[in-house]
Write a structure and sequence with these properties.
Low-confidence stretches of chain A: none
Oligomer: heterodimer
Mean pLDDT of chain B: 90
Structural class of chain A: mainly beta
Distance between the termini of chain B: 37 Å
Radius of gyration of chain A: 13 Å
Structural class of chain B: mainly beta
Shape of chain A: globular
Low-confidence stretches of chain B: none
Largest interface: A-B, 27 and 27 residues
Strand content of chain B: over 45%
Largest sheet of chain B: 7 strands, mixed
Shape of chain B: globular
Number of helices of chain B: 0
Radius of gyration of chain B: 13 Å
Helix content of chain B: under 10%
Helix content of chain A: under 10%
Largest sheet of chain A: 6 strands, mixed
Chain lengths: 115, 117
Protein backbone atom coordinates (compact mmCIF):
# COMPACT_ATOMS: atom_id res chain seq x y z
CA UNK A 1 0.00 0.00 0.00
CA UNK A 2 1.67 3.16 -1.24
CA UNK A 3 0.79 5.79 1.36
CA UNK A 4 2.71 8.57 -0.34
CA UNK A 5 2.56 8.86 -4.11
CA UNK A 6 4.33 11.00 -6.63
CA UNK A 7 2.50 10.17 -9.81
CA UNK A 8 4.78 12.04 -12.18
CA UNK A 9 8.06 10.18 -12.65
CA UNK A 10 9.60 13.11 -14.49
CA UNK A 11 9.16 16.78 -15.25
CA UNK A 12 10.96 19.05 -17.69
CA UNK A 13 10.81 22.84 -17.50
CA UNK A 14 12.62 25.76 -19.03
CA UNK A 15 15.06 27.78 -16.97
CA UNK A 16 13.35 30.73 -15.32
CA UNK A 17 9.91 29.14 -15.39
CA UNK A 18 8.03 27.59 -12.50
CA UNK A 19 8.47 23.93 -11.57
CA UNK A 20 5.56 22.30 -9.77
CA UNK A 21 6.07 18.90 -8.22
CA UNK A 22 3.10 17.08 -6.78
CA UNK A 23 2.59 14.56 -4.02
CA UNK A 24 -0.51 12.78 -2.72
CA UNK A 25 -0.96 10.84 0.48
CA UNK A 26 -3.60 8.55 1.89
CA UNK A 27 -2.92 8.41 5.62
CA UNK A 28 -4.80 11.15 7.45
CA UNK A 29 -2.53 10.62 10.48
CA UNK A 30 0.42 12.21 8.70
CA UNK A 31 1.08 15.57 10.29
CA UNK A 32 4.45 16.58 8.91
CA UNK A 33 5.67 16.65 5.35
CA UNK A 34 9.11 17.13 3.87
CA UNK A 35 10.70 17.51 0.48
CA UNK A 36 14.13 16.12 -0.28
CA UNK A 37 16.39 16.66 -3.25
CA UNK A 38 18.75 14.00 -4.51
CA UNK A 39 21.62 14.28 -6.95
CA UNK A 40 23.13 11.16 -8.56
CA UNK A 41 25.54 9.28 -6.31
CA UNK A 42 24.52 11.36 -3.32
CA UNK A 43 22.03 10.89 -0.51
CA UNK A 44 18.81 12.91 -0.34
CA UNK A 45 19.17 16.30 1.30
CA UNK A 46 16.44 18.13 3.14
CA UNK A 47 14.86 20.98 1.21
CA UNK A 48 11.73 22.26 2.94
CA UNK A 49 9.01 21.04 5.26
CA UNK A 50 5.50 21.88 6.34
CA UNK A 51 3.38 21.06 9.33
CA UNK A 52 -0.21 19.98 8.87
CA UNK A 53 -1.37 23.06 10.77
CA UNK A 54 -0.14 25.23 7.93
CA UNK A 55 -1.07 25.41 4.28
CA UNK A 56 2.03 27.12 2.98
CA UNK A 57 5.69 27.41 3.79
CA UNK A 58 8.16 29.45 1.81
CA UNK A 59 11.93 29.45 1.74
CA UNK A 60 13.52 31.52 -0.97
CA UNK A 61 12.66 30.09 -4.37
CA UNK A 62 10.94 27.10 -2.80
CA UNK A 63 7.35 27.03 -1.58
CA UNK A 64 5.42 24.05 -0.34
CA UNK A 65 1.63 24.07 -0.37
CA UNK A 66 -0.51 21.67 1.63
CA UNK A 67 -4.15 20.90 0.92
CA UNK A 68 -5.25 18.65 3.78
CA UNK A 69 -8.77 18.09 2.51
CA UNK A 70 -7.38 16.78 -0.77
CA UNK A 71 -4.43 15.05 0.94
CA UNK A 72 -2.17 16.76 -1.56
CA UNK A 73 0.99 18.78 -1.36
CA UNK A 74 3.07 20.47 -3.96
CA UNK A 75 6.50 22.00 -4.23
CA UNK A 76 6.90 25.14 -6.31
CA UNK A 77 10.31 26.27 -7.51
CA UNK A 78 10.41 29.78 -8.91
CA UNK A 79 12.42 30.61 -10.90
CA UNK A 80 13.78 27.22 -11.87
CA UNK A 81 17.52 26.95 -12.43
CA UNK A 82 19.57 24.25 -14.19
CA UNK A 83 21.16 23.40 -10.82
CA UNK A 84 17.71 22.37 -9.58
CA UNK A 85 17.82 19.35 -11.89
CA UNK A 86 17.62 16.39 -9.53
CA UNK A 87 15.24 13.79 -8.14
CA UNK A 88 12.76 15.22 -5.67
CA UNK A 89 11.17 13.05 -2.99
CA UNK A 90 8.28 13.99 -0.81
CA UNK A 91 8.02 12.32 2.57
CA UNK A 92 5.50 12.20 5.37
CA UNK A 93 5.60 11.38 9.03
CA UNK A 94 3.47 11.08 12.13
CA UNK A 95 4.57 12.93 15.24
CA UNK A 96 5.44 16.35 13.92
CA UNK A 97 8.91 17.74 13.49
CA UNK A 98 10.14 15.84 16.54
CA UNK A 99 9.43 12.57 14.79
CA UNK A 100 12.18 10.05 15.34
CA UNK A 101 12.93 9.86 11.66
CA UNK A 102 10.49 7.23 10.44
CA UNK A 103 9.56 8.72 7.13
CA UNK A 104 7.27 7.42 4.41
CA UNK A 105 8.59 8.40 1.02
CA UNK A 106 7.08 8.84 -2.40
CA UNK A 107 8.70 7.33 -5.49
CA UNK A 108 10.41 10.52 -6.52
CA UNK A 109 10.10 12.87 -9.48
CA UNK A 110 13.05 13.62 -11.73
CA UNK A 111 13.17 17.30 -12.56
CA UNK A 112 15.12 18.54 -15.54
CA UNK A 113 15.56 22.26 -15.94
CA UNK A 114 16.68 23.16 -19.43
CA UNK A 115 18.90 26.20 -19.99
CA UNK B 1 25.47 20.17 7.22
CA UNK B 2 26.28 16.91 8.91
CA UNK B 3 27.90 14.18 6.90
CA UNK B 4 26.91 10.56 6.73
CA UNK B 5 29.27 8.26 4.91
CA UNK B 6 28.08 4.97 3.42
CA UNK B 7 30.28 2.25 1.94
CA UNK B 8 30.49 0.62 -0.45
CA UNK B 9 28.73 2.63 -3.14
CA UNK B 10 28.05 -0.47 -5.15
CA UNK B 11 28.69 -4.15 -4.76
CA UNK B 12 28.20 -7.21 -6.94
CA UNK B 13 28.11 -10.57 -5.25
CA UNK B 14 27.26 -14.16 -5.97
CA UNK B 15 24.04 -15.68 -4.75
CA UNK B 16 24.43 -17.20 -1.31
CA UNK B 17 27.15 -14.89 -0.10
CA UNK B 18 26.83 -12.19 2.54
CA UNK B 19 27.39 -8.49 2.04
CA UNK B 20 28.11 -5.87 4.70
CA UNK B 21 27.24 -2.21 4.24
CA UNK B 22 28.63 0.43 6.58
CA UNK B 23 27.04 3.70 7.60
CA UNK B 24 29.07 6.25 9.54
CA UNK B 25 28.16 9.62 10.96
CA UNK B 26 31.35 11.63 10.48
CA UNK B 27 30.82 14.74 12.56
CA UNK B 28 28.12 13.89 15.04
CA UNK B 29 27.08 11.03 17.28
CA UNK B 30 24.01 9.26 16.05
CA UNK B 31 22.14 7.25 18.65
CA UNK B 32 19.63 6.29 15.98
CA UNK B 33 20.20 5.33 12.38
CA UNK B 34 17.73 4.15 9.78
CA UNK B 35 18.07 1.73 6.91
CA UNK B 36 15.99 2.09 3.75
CA UNK B 37 15.69 0.09 0.58
CA UNK B 38 14.56 1.26 -2.84
CA UNK B 39 13.58 -0.99 -5.71
CA UNK B 40 13.52 0.50 -9.22
CA UNK B 41 10.74 3.02 -9.75
CA UNK B 42 9.55 2.56 -6.19
CA UNK B 43 9.85 4.67 -3.09
CA UNK B 44 12.42 4.49 -0.35
CA UNK B 45 11.05 1.96 2.11
CA UNK B 46 12.12 1.94 5.74
CA UNK B 47 13.57 -1.44 6.65
CA UNK B 48 14.67 -0.96 10.22
CA UNK B 49 15.60 1.47 12.93
CA UNK B 50 19.02 0.93 14.44
CA UNK B 51 19.62 2.04 18.02
CA UNK B 52 23.09 2.21 19.51
CA UNK B 53 23.64 -0.51 22.04
CA UNK B 54 20.34 -2.27 21.54
CA UNK B 55 18.55 -4.47 19.05
CA UNK B 56 17.25 -2.99 15.86
CA UNK B 57 13.55 -2.55 15.27
CA UNK B 58 12.43 -4.03 11.99
CA UNK B 59 9.48 -2.95 9.88
CA UNK B 60 6.77 -5.42 9.05
CA UNK B 61 7.80 -7.84 6.36
CA UNK B 62 11.54 -7.36 6.80
CA UNK B 63 13.37 -10.53 7.85
CA UNK B 64 15.60 -9.72 10.80
CA UNK B 65 17.63 -12.91 10.33
CA UNK B 66 18.38 -11.99 6.76
CA UNK B 67 19.16 -8.33 7.28
CA UNK B 68 21.44 -8.16 10.30
CA UNK B 69 21.90 -4.73 11.78
CA UNK B 70 24.63 -3.85 14.24
CA UNK B 71 24.96 -0.41 15.85
CA UNK B 72 27.88 -0.96 18.14
CA UNK B 73 29.06 2.62 18.38
CA UNK B 74 27.58 6.09 18.22
CA UNK B 75 29.05 6.66 14.79
CA UNK B 76 28.70 3.32 13.02
CA UNK B 77 25.83 1.10 11.98
CA UNK B 78 26.21 -1.88 9.68
CA UNK B 79 23.70 -3.78 7.59
CA UNK B 80 24.62 -7.31 6.57
CA UNK B 81 22.58 -8.98 3.89
CA UNK B 82 23.04 -12.66 4.65
CA UNK B 83 22.80 -15.38 2.02
CA UNK B 84 21.96 -12.82 -0.61
CA UNK B 85 19.70 -13.78 -3.51
CA UNK B 86 18.91 -11.96 -6.75
CA UNK B 87 15.67 -10.62 -5.28
CA UNK B 88 17.75 -8.77 -2.68
CA UNK B 89 19.27 -6.68 -5.45
CA UNK B 90 18.29 -3.16 -4.57
CA UNK B 91 19.49 0.27 -3.54
CA UNK B 92 20.16 0.44 0.20
CA UNK B 93 20.54 3.76 1.96
CA UNK B 94 21.09 4.73 5.56
CA UNK B 95 20.29 7.86 7.48
CA UNK B 96 21.23 9.26 10.85
CA UNK B 97 19.42 11.78 12.96
CA UNK B 98 21.19 14.47 14.94
CA UNK B 99 20.39 13.77 18.59
CA UNK B 100 17.75 16.04 20.03
CA UNK B 101 17.00 17.60 16.70
CA UNK B 102 13.89 17.43 14.57
CA UNK B 103 13.30 15.22 11.59
CA UNK B 104 14.75 17.91 9.28
CA UNK B 105 18.11 17.02 10.81
CA UNK B 106 18.02 13.58 9.27
CA UNK B 107 21.07 13.10 7.08
CA UNK B 108 21.42 10.42 4.44
CA UNK B 109 24.32 8.43 3.14
CA UNK B 110 24.90 8.21 -0.59
CA UNK B 111 23.50 4.71 -0.81
CA UNK B 112 24.73 1.28 -1.88
CA UNK B 113 23.61 -0.42 -5.07
CA UNK B 114 23.63 -4.15 -4.46
CA UNK B 115 23.50 -6.57 -7.39
CA UNK B 116 23.25 -10.27 -6.60
CA UNK B 117 24.10 -12.58 -9.47
Amino acid sequence: DQQVKQNSPSLSVQEGRISILNCDYTNSMFDYFLWYKKYPAEGPTFLISISSIKDKNEDGRFTVFLNKSAKHLSLHIVPSQPGDSAVYFCAASVGGSSNTGKLIFGQGTTLQVKP
Amino acid sequence: GAVVSQHPSWVICKSGTSVKIECRSLDFQATTMFWYRQFPKQSLMLMATSNEGSKATYEQGVEKDKFLINHASLTLSTLTVTSAHPEDSSFYICSAQTPGQGVEKLFFGSGTQLSVL
